[in-house]
Write a structure and sequence with these properties.
The complex is a heterodimer of chains A (677) and B (362).
Chain A: E1 2-4, H1 5-8, H2 18-28, E2 31-38, E3 41-47, H3 53-56, H4 59-69, H5 88-91, E4 93-96, E5 103-112, H6 121-129, H7 137-149, E6 153-157, E7 165-170, E8 176-178, E9 184-186, E10 192-196, E11 199-203, E12 207-208, E13 221-228, H8 230-239, H9 245-251, H10 259-274, E14 277-278, E15 283-285, E16 293-297, H11 299-306, H12 312-319, E17 323-328, E18 334-338, H13 348-359, H14 380-394, E19 398-399, E20 405-406, H15 408-413, E21 434-435, H16 440-451, E22 456-468, E23 474-486, H17 491-508, E24 517-520, E25 526-536, E26 539-547, H18 549-554, E27 561-567, H19 568-574, E28 590-599, H20 604-612, E29 619-628, E30 637-646, H21 655-672, E31 675-676
Parallel strand pairs in A: 4-7, 19-22
Antiparallel strand pairs in A: 1-3, 2-3, 5-13, 5-14, 5-15, 6-13, 7-10, 8-9, 10-11, 11-12, 16-18, 17-18, 20-21, 22-23, 23-27, 24-25, 25-26, 26-27, 28-30, 28-31, 29-30
Helix pairs in contact in A: 6-7, 7-10, 8-9, 11-13, 20-21
Chain B: H1 3-16, H2 20-31, H3 36-43, H4 49-82, H5 103-117, E1 121-122, E2 128-130, H6 131-134, E3 182-184, H7 190-198, E4 203-212, E5 224-234, H8 239-254, E6 260-264, E7 270-279, E8 288-289, E9 292-293, E10 302-311, H9 313-318, E11 327-333, H10 335-343, H11 356-359
Parallel strand pairs in B: 1-4
Antiparallel strand pairs in B: 2-3, 4-5, 5-11, 6-7, 7-10, 8-9, 10-11
Helix pairs in contact in B: 1-2, 1-4, 2-4, 5-10
Classes of the chains: A alpha+beta (677), B alpha+beta (362).
């Protein structure tokens, strides 16, 4: 909302420069900035939040607030002009059919013999400075008073109102109204209308209609100053996408008592700029008069809330400008009768805010709270996620933080069943149509983007993914996704790097090699046979797989990519925090290496099992250290070399003992079909 | 065995050993397990007692002597090794390949650490929320114009066979709210409600998490970003307490010169409400840097860092507290904003770019 600095001076002395005034109100009231300087004058841009629109969306309102901040009181001077001998009620009538909850007040005043023409320069200048386009003197005067007092007004050509009677009623479904902008709206039936017997004249509180509008031929007018229900005004405004200066004010709960002074002001101004005679009296439908609201406070509670002792006398003084009267209601109890223009003040806490901002938030001394000195309980779930991040980083992965959304294109590329995706009803674009069901698609995009600059990319993300469940339920889960991509890499080598990352990971989390198992797995985007799921017991806690080249290509990646993901809650459940120390070995180990030839496609795990189950009781560890499928080997054979470690807990093993153990293993391997090299 | 002859042979041999390998060979020949001396000492047991005593002590002192000269010679070799061509210490070191944490992780951790040090517990809540928790329970009824302050992503549930959230999203307050639609939370404030429904004061919590706003992104606006909510409730937790907690936090995060200022504001779920401002840490709150307007605060000297206020009595009522008996403050701050100021990042979209050229800098 634009406020003209010089206009404020119509109501009070202002010594501050526009900048100083803007600073003052920004701290104490609402955001105000100097938008444009024009010599000594300036246009101020005021951003009102919903609580202050009703009282401050006008020049007078801003002046009243300025006065309040300075500890002064400023009230509207309501001047009713002398009317002519002719009474409005004799020539015009009003009927309010709509429920009184929707029409809280409806006032009409009338004038005859006005001359519609261009507004005088000063008036046009003020309107233009505030961003309004001058139309003619009658419409401009009505707009001017809205900018002055915040009360929207509407002027009708009295001769254009059929039967010289205004009817305020609910719209009928399917009824149409043509607005002053010559746009036609089909009504739903929920709107409140200003109408005459032949049809709609205006959409109440939102927009005027073509019928009954002021034209160059207009001589006699009626001026409406009304108060419409905030909720239904808001509904109408949203329903038809019509956000107007009037609807903005009404939806924020204007004071019905503001209708009369604004109407009087409009009559005076119109007479000044358009001549004519004012009919005496008004038509005023005002079924429930709004009275000052009593708000009871306990001064000690206000001091306690603010944390700063404020004397009662000071509170009274600060509150006086916005109160009609103040009443002592017993010990430590005061009743403020708040003026109806401040409809935002309802609770004792609202009064506390007024007092706190008026003494100045910045004059309140910071005080550290008294609280129990018990350190906060650790959030194990959060800590575990952070630990995972550290482990990824230590393995050379960098962290990304992607959007939680994926697009229609991702769903299409990956052929995802749409019914398992959580769908956004009002996406901002096609790229944000669904919530991600997996971290995979966005990580693929990261990989593609980074491969433009780096030959190798290792990234990970820890984040939530979302599943659409049956019957409208949704599930969110924490996961970690990571990928390794390297140009010109051997996809096999890259796979085992990623697998190694998972193994290091598991080791760091305290898992022993036989605490978890890799099992072959699959999936739509992995190369068949090049994917594994990691199980602890029967729980899948992670997976790793080589991404299909065609899938990678869809994301613009033309080199090997391995994707891995971790099911965070499953992994966390599997991690035992009881990490027990193992005593250092007293006696040295004896190591033997063994190299064997096995048929191609023999699984390392199977050989491992043969070795472990050969009955060598001093065997402590088996490590594959080389695997080779070269041309110099017999056809269809793979060479594997294992490092075997033997140890006894109570003595140093002799060479002979180790030899016997090795023989057992060799025997078992031969039985398995391996050839010892 | 002729000790004198052996000594002469040994000492001559040592003289000739010109490098480590030769020295090692010498050690095997004269001091090794199969050396003449070792064999001699092993044979001693078969000699008569008196001969054993005499020869034994001679042979042992001879062995000590040889060990001594061997050690001295070895040290000489090692000493000579320190001489030679100096390293080019300006050559780059060998890099260890470690990844990088995201700047938001670093920022969030720092923020959480500071609040934890003040006794705030970390609590989380769901991203997919009901309209009730995100708005109604926070004193923002559907008809209220304040709803316009939060542009909301709504879930398309009609096509999914239901309007209601999953069962664990539903708490006692949802009963009877059959049409509580699902949305992406627009702030972390719903966790205030969830926490208070299940806990009794006094407490202090912070709630880090993602929030969503239905708006177009640009250098300063995101649709998917982080927020940290804070909530402290007790018998007498006051506005002055909030100032002290927030001031301490800002000074810890940005440095001891940082100043706090509050400005009047409005949130439906707090009363009084205020905006948290901080003296610009780039220009030191002066608004200008060597005559030019500070780029970060735009010459305003103060930076908006978040919203805050005293918990609204209706919010307390909605969770079953008696607003006559408890009071407290709540605040919301944006980690992206903190990171942008801390690292002088001028485009919020970089955080979600996944660009390693950006990420590798942290």
């Amino acid at each position: 909302m634009r406020i003209l600095y010089s206009w404020l001076k119509d109501y009070m002395d202002i010594k501050e420069s526009p900048e100083k005034l803007a600073d003052l109100l920004s701290v104490s009231s609402f955001e105000m900035i100097v938008d444009k300087k024009m010599g000594k004058d300036a246009v101020l841009e005021v951003s009102l939040l919903p609580n202050r629109v009703a009282d401050a969306s006008s020049h007078f309102g801003v002046a009243r607030e300025t006065a309040l901040v300075k500890g002064k009181k400023l009230d509207i001077r309501d001047e009713r002009l002398e009317g002519s001998a002719v009474k409005l009620a004799k020539t015009f009538s009003l009927e309010v059919e709509a429920p009184r909850t929707l029409v809280r007040r409806y006032m009409l005043a009338g004038m005859t013999g006005v001359e519609v023409k261009e507004s005088p320069g000063w008036l046009k200048k003020r309107l233009i400075a505030c961003g309004l386009r001058p139309i003619n003197n009658i419409v401009d005067a009505a707009n001017y008073v809205m900018l002055e007092f915040g009360q929207p007004l509407h002027a009708f050509d009295a001769d254009g109102v059929s039967g010289r009677k205004i009817i305020v009623r609910k719209a009928r479904k399917g009824e149409k109204i043509e607005t002053i902008e010559r746009k036609t709206y089909m009504l739903s039936g929920s709107e409140t209308l200003i109408a005459d017997k032949s049809g709609p004249l205006a959409l109440a509180g939102v927009k005027g209609g073509k019928k009954g509008e002021i034209s160059g031929r207009t001589k006699n007018i009626v001026i409406e100053s009304a108060n419409f229900d905030p909720i239904s005004t808001r509904q109408t405004s949203r329903l038809h996408g019509l956000k107007t200066d009037a609807s903005w004010r009404f939806e924020n709960d204007l004071d019905p008592n503001g209708a009369a002074p604004a109407l009087n002001r409009a009559l005076k101004l119109i007479q000044e700029v358009a001549g004519g005679e004012i009919l005496s009296g008004t038509l005023d439908f005002y079924p429930v008069k709004v009275l000052p609201r009593p708000v009871a406070i306990e001064p000690s509670k206000i001091s306690k809330l603010i944390g700063h002792e404020i004397p009662v006398s000071r509170m009274l003084k600060l509150a006086a400008p916005f109160c009609e009267s103040i009443e002592k209601g017993g010990k430590d109890r005061i009743i403020f009768h708040v003026k109806t223009c401040r409809r935002d003040l309802k609770y004792s806490e609202d009064i506390a805010e007024e007092i706190a901002r008026l003494i100045g938030y910045n004059s309140i001394k910071p005080k550290l709270p008294f609280a129990f000195l018990i350190p906060p309980a650790k959030n194990e779930i959060v800590e575990f996620r952070e630990r995972l991040k550290d482990e990824f980083v230590s393995l050379g992965f960098s962290e990304t933080c992607n959007y939680s959304f994926i697009g229609e294109r991702d769903a299409e590329l990956l052929a995802i069943d749409r019914s398992r995706l959580v769908e956004i009803g009002n996406p901002v674009s096609r790229e944000t149509k669904y919530l991600r069901w997996s971290l995979f698609p966005n990580i693929m995009k990261n990989i593609a983007n980074n491969l433009r600059f780096f030959p190798e990319v290792r990234i990970f993300e820890v984040g939530k993914h979302y599943d659409q469940m049956e019957k409208g339920a949704c599930r969110e889960s924490w996961g970690a996704g990571g990928a390794v991509a390297r140009k010109n890499a051997d996809i096999r080598a890259l796979f085992f790097e990623a697998k190694g990352a998972i193994e290091s990971f598991m080791e760091r989390l305290g898992f022993e090699r036989d605490d978890y198992r890799f099992r072959e797995s699959g999936g739509p985007w992995v190369i068949p046979g090049a994917a594994a799921a990691v199980f602890v017991g029967d729980k899948e806690i992670a997976a790793v797989g080589a991404v299909r080249p065609d899938t990678a290509a869809l994301y613009g990646i033309d080199c090997p990519v391995i994707y891995l993901h971790i099911v965070i809650d499953a992994l966390q459940n599997a991690v035992s925090e009881e990490h027990e120390f193992e005593p250092l070995h007293k006696y040295p180990d004896v190591a033997r290496d063994i190299s064997i030839l096995v048929p191609i496609f023999t699984k390392v795990e199977d050989v491992d099992n043969v070795i472990s189950e050969a009955g060598a009781k001093y065997l402590e560890d088996v490590d594959l250290f080389d695997i080779y499928e070269g041309d110099d080997l017999p056809d269809g054979k793979t060479s594997m070399a294992f490092h075997l470690v033997f140890r006894a807990e109570d003595r140093t093993l002799t060479d002979e003992e180790a030899g016997r153990e090795l023989e057992r293993i060799i025997g078992a391997l031969k039985q398995f079909g391996a050839e010892i090299r | 065995m002729d000790l004198d002859l052996l000594r002469k042979k040994a000492l001559d041999g040592l003289e000739r050993a010109g490098n480590f390998a030769e020295l090692e060979k010498w050690r095997v020949v004269f001091l090794g397990r199969k050396s003449e001396l070792a064999l001699f000492l092993r044979d001693l047991s078969s000699k008569p007692l008196n001969a054993r005593r005499d020869l034994g002590s001679k042979a042992n002192s001879f062995r000590k002597e040889l060990e001594e000269v061997y050690r001295a010679r070895r040290l000489e070799f090692l000493k000579s090794r320190t001489a030679g061509k100096p390293f080019d210490i300006t050559r780059p070191g060998k890099k260890f390949s470690r990844g990088h944490l995201h700047p938001l992780t670093i920022t969030l951790r720092r923020m959480i650490d500071i609040f934890s040090s003040m006794g705030f517990e970390v609590v989380e809540g769901p991203d997919i929320e009901t309209e009730y928790y995100n708005f109604d329970a926070l004193n923002i009824p559907s008809w209220h114009p304040a709803r316009d302050l939060w542009d909301t992503f709504w879930l398309n549930q009609s096509a999914r066979g239901g309007l209601i959230a999953r069962s664990d999203l539903l708490r006692k307050s949802d009963l009877g709210l059959k049409d509580s639609r699902l949305l992406l939370r627009t702030h972390t404030s719903p966790v205030q409600i969830r926490y208070m429904e299940t806990h009794q004061p006094p407490f202090r919590i912070i709630v880090p998490g993602r929030v969503f706003r239905h708006e177009a992104t640009d250098a300063r606006h995101e649709m998917d970003f982080y927020q940290i909510e804070g909530l402290m409730v007790g018998d007498d937790v006051s506005l002055a307490n909030f100032k002290a907690v927030m001031e301490y936090f800002l000074k810890q995060f940005f440095g001891s010169g940082t100043e706090l200022k509050l400005r009047a504001s409005y949130f439906p779920f707090t009363e009084p409400s205020f905006e948290v401002l901080m003296s610009c840490v780039i220009c030191g709150g002066k608004g200008r840097i060597s005559g030019k307007k500070c780029r970060v605060c735009g010459g305003e000297r103060w930076l908006e860092m978040g919203g805050a206020g005293m918990v609204h009595p209706e919010v307390f009522r909605n969770v079953g507290y008696d607003p006559q008996k408890v009071q407290g403050f709540a605040f919301g701050i944006g980690p992206e904003r903190f990171a942008m100021i801390k690292y002088k990042i001028d485009d919020i979209r970089l955080f979600r770019s996944g660009d390693l050229r950006f990420l590798n800098q942290f």
